[in-house]
C-alpha cells in the first residue's frame, strides 16, 4: 500500500513517514501544497495524509483540485485543534477523515488502516481467503492458523492482492502501489514475489491471468 504525506513541518513529516514505513507502507512525502497536488494528481495512492496549512497551495485547495480531477483516494486531513472550521471545510472539500493537532502517531496509523480497509470494502483489519488470513494491523499472515514468515515485499504483494481480491491486478498496478516514486521499478520482481508466495502460502492462491496480471479468487462457500 502506497501513502502520500503532505506536511510542511519537516520533523512531523519525517515522523509520519517513518511510522508509516515501519507499519509496512510505501511512502512518498511532499513539503508544500504544489508538490503534494502534483504527486496526488499524477501518482496512484491508497491514501493521503494532508495538512491544511501548507505553503504555496493550502490543503483545502489541493483537496478540491484532486476531487475536481476525479482523484478519489481516501484523504485524512490534519487540522489545528481549535479550528473547527478547518474540519468542516475539509470534509466539505472531500476529506474522508481528520485528525486534530497535536495527535498521537498511533491514531493516524489507525485511521489510515480504516480508510484503506473501507476503500477496499473490508469491515475489519483481518482479511480471509480460504485458509489464508492476513491481519493488516499486526502485519501477520497465517495459513490454517499457522504463521507464515514473509519478507516485506512478499507481504506487500499479498496484502494488496487480498485487499483487491476477485479482480485482476496488473503488474503495473502492483508496482505503482508497492514502490515509491524514486524506486528503480522492475516488473520482473513481481513475478518473483508471486512465485515465492505460492510456495510459502498456497500454490493455488494466486491465479495468473495471462497478459493481464494476477488475481486472488474468494472460494465459494460449500
Automatic annotation (TrEMBL):
Protein's recorded name: Two-component system, OmpR family, response regulator
InterPro entries (alphabetical): CheY-like_superfamily, OmpR/PhoB-type_DNA-bd, Sig_transdc_resp-reg_receiver, WalR-like, WH-like_DNA-bd_sf
Key word Cell inner membrane present: no
PANTHER family: REGULATOR OF RPOS (PTHR48111), RESPONSE REGULATOR PROTEIN CARR (PTHR48111:SF37)
DNA-binding region: 124-218
PROSITE patterns named in the record: OMPR_PHOB (PS51755), RESPONSE_REGULATORY (PS50110)
Modification sites for 4-aspartylphosphate: 51
Domain of life: Bacteria
Pfam families: Response_reg, Trans_reg_C
Domain Response regulatory residue range list: 2-116
GO CC terms, sorted: cytosol; protein-DNA complex
Keywords in alphabetical order: DNA-binding, Phosphoprotein, Transcription, Transcription regulation, Two-component regulatory system
Species of origin: Kaistia soli DSM 19436
NADP is among the record's keywords: no
Signal peptide: none
Chain ranges of the OmpR/PhoB-type domain: 124-218
GO MF entries: phosphorelay response regulator activity; transcription cis-regulatory region binding
